[in-house]
Amino acid sequence: MTTELLQPLINSIVVAATTDGKQRSNTEVNIKFGLLKARPRNVKITCVYRDKNKWSSEGCQWGGPDNEDSCICNHLSSFAVLMSKEPLKVLWLEQVTYVGLGISIVSLFIGLLIELVVWSDVVKTNTLYLRHTAHVNISLCLLVGNACFLASSETKSITEAWCRTSAVLKHFCYLAMFFWMLCLSTTLLHQTVFLFHKVSKKSYLRFSLALGYGCPVIVVFVTFLSYGAGSEGVYYSKDTCWLVYSGLFKGSIYTFVIPVATIVFINVFSMLVVIMKLLSHNQNADMSQEKEKAAAKTVLRSVILLTPIFGVTWVFGLATMIIDLTSGIQADVVNYIFVVLNAFQVGSTLFMKCNRKPQPLTRKHSHKVRLGLMLKMKSIYSLV
């Protein structure tokens, strides 16, 4: 449900429609108005006629955001267009955003703390090292991106410099999140296809840092320079502190959408190849290969879960930019879905951290794990 603020203003010349004969009961008048001022996004227009000493909208209907200069009325009179002074707002959307992002930030911090405490006990193979390194960096990117999202939510009360900086940081962090998912799928694909070509942890880390952070830096840097050196209305919008959507394949938002869509496509392709390779895996493989296969299945579960969750979230994110709030209930639904998915997608990363098949522990190993956790927690408390 959208809410409207302030009284509307007249945004067209007054047009009178008359007829020489008697007016019919089924009269339909379709009038094209030349708007005196361009309609900003999400701003409602009302078609009205002069009823004695006041404007009335009875019997008149606006053409909608796709036909914004059109009015259809079922009677004759003097017509005009009224435009709201402020954009429409979705009821309770801001409150849901604040609560969701707050929970998301706290959950991400807890998830990173869990990784820190149990790191040495869960990273047993190169494949698991790949998985947990990627999860840590995905969580870091989400944490910084969501914090910037929350810090720039009140766009009217922040400076232009911070709004621009926030847009750049969100652009980089959310892109980096997807590029780290690409690291997961490509290295998993490599290890599955080339079973005997082992990659060291150092080589993997160099590759992942270059792909996970290097590529987003290049994309953001080139975009920033290409779109008016980060100017307002070209690179970012002051109303959202986010990238600009100017129409189909127009605007800086597509420097985010196109890389994300490409990564999702590559991830889907990689998942299919890995699944086929695992199904045709040699039954006589040695124990070390069996361990790597089990680890690869764990990483595959991560990619299968994270790719649709993050991908679907930003499909709705693009939809919120395309669908105008004056379009009706569907615009409200899309906005609510995006805010909820964006705020609570962190639950999927926490789930993947905890979703490990429990292994039987000997008394000696159990004591070692407990001792390690106690020492790590002691070192954390000493830093506080």
TrEMBL record:
Membrane topology: Multi-pass membrane protein
Keyword field contains Membrane: yes
Cleaved signal peptide residues: none
Keywords of the record: Disulfide bond, Glycoprotein, Membrane, Transmembrane, Transmembrane helix
Pfam family, one: 7tm_2
UniProt domain G-protein coupled receptors family 2 profile: residue ranges: 93-357
InterPro entries cross-referenced by the UniProt entry: Adhesion_GPCR (IPR051587), GAIN_B (IPR057244), GAIN_dom_sf (IPR046338), GPCR_2-like_7TM (IPR017981), GPCR_2_secretin-like (IPR000832), GPS (IPR000203)
SUPFAM superfamilies found in the cross-reference section: Family A G protein-coupled receptor-like
Highest taxon in the source lineage: Eukaryota
Transmembrane segments: 98-122, 134-152, 172-196, 208-229, 253-279, 299-323, 335-354
Primary subcellular site in the record, as a coarse category: membrane
Compartment list: Membrane
GO cellular component, one term: membrane
GO molecular function: G protein-coupled receptor activity
UniProt keyword annotation of Cell membrane present: no
Domain GAIN-B: 1-89
GO terms classed as biological process: adenylate cyclase-activating G protein-coupled receptor signaling pathway; cell surface receptor signaling pathway
PANTHER family: ADHESION G-PROTEIN COUPLED RECEPTOR F3, IG-LIKE DOMAIN-CONTAINING PROTEIN
Family assignment from sequence similarity: Belongs to the G-protein coupled receptor 2 family. Adhesion G-protein coupled receptor (ADGR) subfamily.
Protein name per Swiss-Prot or TrEMBL: Adhesion G protein-coupled receptor F3b
Taxonomic classification: Eukaryota, Metazoa, Chordata, Craniata, Vertebrata
